[in-house]
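Exercise (ungraded).
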Amino acid sequence: MLKTAHRVGRDVAARRQDRGLRTREAILAWAVDLASADGLEGLTVGSLAEQLKMSKSGLFAHFGSKEELQLATVEKARLIFIEKVTKPAIGAPKGMPRLWAMVDHWLALVEKRVFRGGCFFSAASFEFDSRKGVVHDRIAEIMREWIEVLTRAVNEAQKAGHVDPKIDASRLAFEIHAIALGAHWAYQLLDDRRAYLRARMILLEKLRSIATSASPRLP
Amino acid sequence: MLKTAHRVGRDVAARRQDRGLRTREAILAWAVDLASADGLEGLTVGSLAEQLKMSKSGLFAHFGSKEELQLATVEKARLIFIEKVTKPAIGAPKGMPRLWAMVDHWLALVEKRVFRGGCFFSAASFEFDSRKGVVHDRIAEIMREWIEVLTRAVNEAQKAGHVDPKIDASRLAFEIHAIALGAHWAYQLLDDRRAYLRARMILLEKLRSIATSASPRLP
DNA sequence: ACAGAATACGAACGTTCGTGCTATTTATTT
DNA sequence: AAATAAATAGCACGAACGTTCGTATTCTGT
C-alpha cells in the first residue's frame, strides 16, 4: 500500500519539468526550515501549503504521499548539509586542517541559523529514533554516512602524520559528534549563547592533545 | 484561554482521591513510555485511552487539557529520573565516587530500557527546543536543574580533593552530558550496541585524567 | 442503606489530518 | 492558433485530533 504511494510519488516527481521542479524546490526549502522547528511529523501538508500560498492538493501532487514529502525533505536537508559543511571542508588540505574545517563549518551551520529550528538532523534523529519505516532508515543511513566522513577525516589526518596513529578514529568521531550534539542542545533548548564557543574550545583542546608536532597549527 | 485550561486541570487533579490518583498514576506511567517513543506530541489522548482500555473522556478528565497531560507526563518522567539516577547516586560518598555513580546510573537508565523509546528527556529536549509555551519552559527548567546537579557533583569532587581544582566544573558537566547524549543517539538511532560501553570508557578516561592522587579509584 | 461526591463512559462537537478525484489554468509543441 | 501536456486549484472523503457535556457507575461517609 505504502509502496504504491512511493512509486506514484517518485513517478510524479520524475515526470516534472522546469516549472514543476522549481516550485518543488521552493516547497522543499521551506519544508526543511519548518521541519527543523516542528519536526518531520509537524510538517503538515496544510500548514506548508498555507505558508507558501498554494493549495493543499497542488502542493501534495508534487509528492504523492506524506512519507514521500518527508523523504524529499530529508534529502534536501542532506544536500544543504553537504553544500555548507562537507564541500567547503574538502577545500581545506587533507589532515588536521580538513578535520577542523569540518567541525568548524558544522558548528557554524547551526550557529548561523541556516535552519530555523537548529540542527535539522539532530531533531530528526531523536524524532525518528524509535520508529520503523523508510524515513527512519534514510535518516540513520545519512547519519552513518556523516560519522564515516568524520572517521575518514581522522584517518586521513593520521595518514598525514598530523594525529597520533594510536588514536581510535571512530571513537574520536563519536566524541566530536557528541560534543556538537551537546552544543546544539544547550544553544537551542537552554538558549546558552556560549554553547558553540564552548564546544569549539573543547574540541580544539581535544584535537591539540592528540596532534603530533608535524600537524599544522590549529586556530 | 489556555490558562483556564490549566487551572481546570489542576483543580480537577487536586480534588481527586485514592482511586483517581491510582488510575492517574497508571496513565502517566504508560504515557511516559509512549512519549519517550512517539514524542510528547505523538502522545494522543485517543491512543493512550485505547492502550489502557479506557474511554477518551474518562482519561481526559484527569488532566483537562492535552498540555496539562504533557506537563504531568514530563513531571512523572522527572520523578522516575530522580528515583533511578539522582537518589541512588547520592547513596555514594561525596566526591569522585558520587560523580561517577551519577554518570553510571544515568547511562544504565537508558541501557536498561526503563523508557521504551530511549532517553525521555533527550527526545523531549529536541522535540520542544524551538517551541514556546509552558511545556518547553518546564523541560528546559528540568534540564538546567540536571546540569546543575552534575556541576555540583563536580564541585564537590573538587572540594573533596578528588578532582583538579583548576577544572571548570560547568564545562565538565557539559562534556559529560554531551557524551551521554551521543551515546543515546548512537544506541537508539544507529542501533550501536557498543555505544554505552564506549561512552563509559570515554568518560572514565576523562575523569581519570583530571583525578588527583587523593581520589578513590574509579571502576 | 442511602445520600452525595468522585470517577468513568458514550456520543457528539468543530478542526485538521492525509489523500483522492475532477476541473482549470499555464506552458510547450506542432 | 490549435492541440497536447504539465501544473495547480477546488472540493470532498473518512479518520483522528482535542474537547465538551450529560449520564451512568462506583466509591465514601453517615
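Further reading is listed at the end of the chapter. For now, observe: Chain A touches chain B at residues 36-39, 41-42, 116-118, 122-123, 125-131, 139-140, 143-144, 147, 171, 174-175, 177-179, 181-183, 185-186, 188-191, 198, 202 (CB under 8 Å). Residues 15-17, 19-20, 23, 54-59, 61-62 of chain A lie near DNA strand D (CB under 10 Å from a C1').
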